[in-house]
Amino acid sequence: MPMNSDTQNLIKAAVIGHPVNQSKSPLIHNYWLRKYSILGVYEAIDIEPDNFESEVRALIEKGYKGFNFTIPHKDAGMKLCDEIDDVAEKIGAVNTAYIANGKIHGTNTDAFGFVHNIRTCVPEFRFSTGPAVVLGAGGAAKAVVHGLVEEGAPEIRIFNRTKNKAEDIAKKFAGGAVAAYDWDDRGIHLEDAAFVVNTTSLGMKGQPDLFMNLQDLNEKAVVNDLVYTPLQTSLLRNAKLNGNPTVTGVGMLVHQARPGFKHWFDVMPKIDNEMRELLGL
Ligand code: NAP
């Protein structure tokens, strides 16, 4: 592209992954760039793990304002940062980086996305109402547990196939009444739960469904699935049949994008109806 004053002033950010063509982030950020008339671009850049550091540093040299890091670069992204904030430190992963004063700053916006999705979809709900049940103990679960602790969930019960990963999270968030449970017991310990969230990949297109007996769950409890392809997972369908309010995962994806957009383009974007239609929210 020939350089002119417009392209020189273009503010650039990107999601870095391998592969990266499945990412919905360019759709979200480029929609906001158009909406707020910002002269900027958000790209999806595929970088192989061996070239990660050199290619990201080359993009910074070219003036990129920041990045989202996705699979398999979440650990490498964290190592690359000069400064990591408390949230990313606690969650143990950086999904958003921005360049300021010549330094790479790393943060994690997944907990923000998780909490704001629930706040938007069920405004009357309070996490402090009762225990939260978390299915899964991978990367997304850490962000969810962080969000739940920050929002004052009185107790957090983590059920994971590999129990020691749930125990590790429980130890990490020891101050927040977090405990690990056997995966096969996920249908029990539900009577007093106010919130149930699936953070496993079960239910995702190409993966087996998540089976869970919701018979003992109070019908006021909110049920959330982080999986968003498909939007209506078997967990959410069962929860609806049980009479529970349900929240899909796509809103978390959009909300987690907002703080990154603010860092790079200096506007805290709002989610409007056109964005909702674009993503089937
Ligand atoms: P991850 O770190 O790989 O963790 C995967 C989790 O799924 C682990 O707890 C794993 O259990 C469990 N799991 C996988 N297959 C299973 C099976 N057959 N039976 C029981 N448990 C199984 O992945 P992640 O990054 O946490 O992401 C998890 C899901 O959340 C993905 O579907 C992702 O798309 C979604 N997500 C959504 C958003 C959003 O914005 N909505 C954000 C982040 C992630 P083990 O520990 O036993 O292997």
Description:
The protein is built from 11 helices and 12 strands. The chain is of the alpha/beta class and 281 residues long. The chain has a 6-stranded mixed β-sheet with strand order 2-1-3-5-6-4. Helix 6 crosses helix 7. The protein is globular, with a radius of gyration of 19 Å. Bound molecules: NADP nicotinamide-adenine-dinucleotide phosphate (NAP). NADP nicotinamide-adenine-dinucleotide phosphate binds next to helix 6, helix 7 and helix 10.
Oligomer description: single chain
Count of alpha/pi helices: 11
What class, by secondary structure content? alpha/beta
Q: How do the helices and strands follow one another from N- to C-terminus?
A: HEHEHEHEHEEHEHEHEEEHEHH
Q: What is the spatial order of strands in the main beta sheet?
A: 2-1-3-5-6-4
Question: Roughly what fraction of the amino acids lie in strands?
Answer: 15-25%
Report the span from N to C terminus. 36 Å
Note the topology.
Elements: H1 5-9, E1 11-17, H2 25-35, E2 40-46, H3 52-61, E3 66-69, H4 74-80, E4 83-84, H5 86-91, E5 96-100, E6 103-107, H6 110-121, E7 132-135, H7 139-150, E8 156-160, H8 163-172, E9 178-182, E10 195-198, E11 222-225, H9 234-241, E12 246-247, H10 250-265, H11 273-279
Parallel strand pairs: 1-2, 1-3, 4-6, 7-8, 7-10, 8-9, 10-11, 11-12
Antiparallel strand pairs: 3-5, 5-6
Helix pairs in contact: 2-10, 6-7, 6-10
The structure holds NADP nicotinamide-adenine-dinucleotide phosphate.
NADP nicotinamide-adenine-dinucleotide phosphate (NAP) binds at residues 110, 113, 136-141, 160-162, 165, 199-202, 204, 208, 226-228, 249, 252-253, 256.
